[in-house]
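Hi,

I'm pasting everything inline rather than attaching a file, because the server keeps stripping attachments. The sequence lines come first, and each chain or strand is labelled.
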Amino acid sequence: MTDDVESCRGQRMGAFGDRTFVPPETSEQWARERTFALQHLRLDLVVDDEAKKVSGTATHRLAPINDGLKEIVLDLDNLRIRGVKDEAGKALEFETHGEELTIRLPRARKAGEAFELRVRYEATPTKGLFFVAPDKAYPKKPRIVWTQGEEMDNRSWFPSYDYPNQKFTTEVVVTVKEAYRAVSNGRLVSEKHDPKKGTRTFHWIQDKPHPNYLIALVVGEWDTKEWDADGIPVQAYVPKGYGKYIDLCFSRVPAMVKFFGRVTGLRYPWGKYAQACVPDFTFGGMENTSITILHEYCLTDEHAYPDYSSDSLLSHELAHQWFGDWLTCKSWGHLWLNESFADYFECLWWEDHFGKDEFIVHLEEVREGYYEEAEKKYKRPIVTHKFVDAEDMLDNHTYNKGCGVLHMLRTVLGDDLWWKGIRHYVKKVGLQNVETTDFRVALEEATGKSLAWFFDEWLYHAGHPEFEVSWSWDDRAKQVEVKVKQTHEVKDAVPLFRMPVELEFATDDRVWRETVQVDRAEHTFRIASRERPRTVLFDPDGNLIKKLTFKKEKEELLWQLAHANGVWARMEAAAGLGRFVGDAAAAQALGKALSKDPFWGVRRATAAGLGEVGTTAARDVLLASLKGQDSRVRRGIYAALGKFRKDDEAFKALSKAYLEDGTYAPMAQAAQALAETRHPGAFDAIA
Ligand SMILES: [Zn+2]
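And the predicted assembly:
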């Protein structure tokens, strides 16, 4: 699931504003105990969108886990239960209390003795299933019904076992108005038209087991398109009239389906992949098995597209079809096994499709969501059973930090072993519920590595290392001396970190790397070199979750910006040069890189640096560099121009950009920057 339509990087509200994740007295929430194995659930429903009502029968086929089962407890929320019968049609005693439906069995059942329960009910749901309809404010809004089960809201439209730690096959037989098309999990086995009643009945079967929260339904009038991804039908459903936006949004999904199948070793495992865009969706997207539901805001036009790619959202939700749906966290404390994987596989799609440099920028943007939460709110272990509400686990630790942790795991293992481990994990635990230990054990089985140390510090402990690094040259010994300190406070769940770290050294004619093991508060590493390096880089590709203070001389940064091979190093140099406020050489070097560097991410970083340097020359370079720039760089330039307080030239350029840039996000950035100039004309320019 994602809660931000722009990407997985939503700034989620934490549970508490007091910089702690949970109050200390919070008790732990372990996976729920089960008394029966649910084998199959069939819903026979009528959905009346005008009355905003759902009615029908939920038929559960289940078997006790132990001998002597006398009652069954199902989850429900505000359902009106009309009766419960067994498979012979005999009425059974039941009672509802809070969110529990307790059904008494006429006789105790033995372990494994399967039987059916038919629960007839009605609902007017206010959660779980939503009715969108036109209103006075939005008279053109389409009539659409959509559901959102995660974490435990599906109990608001049907009674069931509503916790992720068991999986079962499902069937949804739904009757709707004849103009509508209803889409649910799995494959469509029949569609029946009843002209007398003016209704249509759709019968969907999900024949591989999945958990309750992934059961989904959308009903409405749609524009649709279907693609073929090596035999897998990939489908888009958008509200009728929105069909012209389908291609820009969805056309790369078939390639994503093939990519994830190839790298995980598991071809897309469900019969179809439908994606439905709906109005007023409460999240960015939700990865229901074989039917992802998306907020309609992911449909954009060409003026938004250069700055917003639906690839983030769509690849995230698609990755869940493997990580979340094919294998599912056993309890909410292990939710990272769903969400961090979806975030990281989104980054991996980025790497495969757009290249390594784009991947580096995308990954860092994801990690920034974690840094912000860690700084402003709290640091917690990614795996924890101490939470108040399952929804509280949907934070930037579960998504963003876990994504960064998976990338470090890949870095520690190397690409070959990482993929070997992932393929073994996907194969071994398919269709099952998983805990964090299952993932570690699968990786260890596949690779022979011992990874308990890594899981212990990154999943069961909190925080991240804050490094202070410096280097010097010992000409007599012909050695580079690199000092590394871990300066963060080691307390509570935040440990001193143990990690292998790459160092990169560059002279005029040679670049080489050394890997050092950091595990203490302070290290001095001595590296042999024939001559004094021009630059020394710590974690040169930005693989680690960390904060780094690495003070460098201006000369080194100038060389690094102009000559470093990696985009991470050049972006670091641009940021470093920005600290030389008023410096002519810094402005000149940044200006040169702004026009010449081949990667837009570096050019954007140089624009930010020029904004910090703040000289007239820096401003003029920014103004002169606007033409022909990628819109993401233009945004960076506009933001930088906003730093020039009450400056007439910056004001003029931003006023023009606000009206004439032509692309939405840069225009919005120009408006914001205009305000930041505090120029006397800014208000009128925006108003
Ligand atoms: Zn997700």
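The pocket of zinc ion is lined by residues 1-2, 316, 320, 339, 342 (CB under 6 Å).

If the labels don't parse on your end, tell me and I'll reformat.
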